[in-house]
Amino acid sequence: MQERKSAFLVLAAGTLWGLISLFVHMLSDCGMQSLPIVCFRNVLAALILGIWLAIRNPGLLKIRLRDCWMFLGTGVVSIALFNYCYFVTLQHASVAVSVLLLYTSPVFVMLFARLLFGEPLTRRKLTALVMTVFGCACVTGVFSEAQHLPLIYLLTGLGSGLFYGLYSIFGKKALARYSTETVTFYTFAVAAAATLPFSASNCVSVVSSHPQTLLVGVGLALFCTVLPFLCYTSGLKGIPAGRAAVLATAEPLVGTVTGIAVFGDSFSPSTALGILLVLTAIVLMNTPARIGRTQHG
C-alpha cells in the first residue's frame, strides 16, 4: 500500500509539472517577459515555502553563511538559468518540443558524472545517449522541414536541460549538509534575489495592468512548484529513485497532450518518434542493469 501511494505521489508530481505551460502562456499573453516570469515564479514559491517552513519547523530555515555558495549554484546557475531557457523555449516552440528538450537533462548529468566523479560510461548509458540525440533531432525538425525549430530555440531548449542537470551537481553538495526542504527554499530564494533587479519593473507593470496575473503566478508557484516538490519528495521515501525518475516522465506526456489540446500544437510522426526515443532513453538510464539482464535471459 505504501509503495502504491508513493508511486501515485511521484506520478502526481510529474503531472503537475507537465501543466506549467498553461501558466507561462497566460503570463506571457498579459505581457510578462521570460525573465520576469522566472522571477515571479521564484519569488512566490520562496514565499510559500518560507511561510510553510516557518510554521512547520523554523529550524529548517537556519544555514551557515559560508555555505551560501552552494545555493548560488542551485539558485542562480541552475534554477534561474534553467527556468529562463525553458520559458523562452515554451514561448517560441511547441510544448512537446520544449519539455522534450528539457528532458535531455539526464544526458548532461551522465556526462557530468563521468567528468567530475569518474562514473563509467556503460553500454547502456551510451545507447541512451544516442537515442536521446536522435530523438531530439526528430522533434526539432531535422528530418522534417514542416516542423523546423530555429537554432536559437534549440539551444535554449538544450540549455534548459543543461542547467537543470547542473542542479544535481550543486544539490548533491547542499543535501549532504541540509534537508531537502531547506535546500529547496534557499534555492528559490536566491534565484528570486538574482532575477529581481532585472525583472521587478516588468512584473509590477503587468500585475498593475492585469491584477489577475497575481493569481496566475500563485497558481504557477503552488501547483507547478511547491506541491509537485512536496509530492515528489514524499514519494521518494517509498520507492527507489530510479523508479521515481521513470514515473516523473509523466511530465513530457502531460505537456505534449496539453500543447495539442489547449494550444493546437502540431504533432507529426517525426515528433512522436522523437518523444518515444527520449522517453525510452530516460527509462533505460533509470532502470537497474540487472533488470535488463533478467529480461534477456
Short description:
This protein has helices at 2-17, 20-29, 34-56, 68-92, 95-102, 105-117, 123-139, 151-175, 180-209, 212-236, 241-247, 250-263, 269-285, 289-295.
Overview of this protein structure:
This protein has 297 residues and is mostly helical. The chain contains 14 helices and no strands. Helix 1 (2-17) packs across helix 11 (241-247), helix 5 packs across helix 8 (151-175) and helix 5 packs antiparallel against helix 12. The longest helix is centred in the middle third of the chain and has 30 residues, at 180-209. The radius of gyration is 19 Å and the shape is globular.
What's the structural blueprint in terms of helices and strands?
Elements: H1 2-17, H2 20-29, H3 34-56, H4 68-92, H5 95-102, H6 105-117, H7 123-139, H8 151-175, H9 180-209, H10 212-236, H11 241-247, H12 250-263, H13 269-285, H14 289-295
Helix pairs in contact: 1-10, 1-11, 1-12, 2-10, 3-4, 3-9, 3-10, 4-8, 4-9, 5-8, 5-12, 6-8, 7-13
State Rg.
Answer: 19 Å
Helix and strand element order = HHHHHHHHHHHHHH
State the distance separating the first and last CA atoms.
Answer: 30 Å
Q: Tally the helices.
A: 14
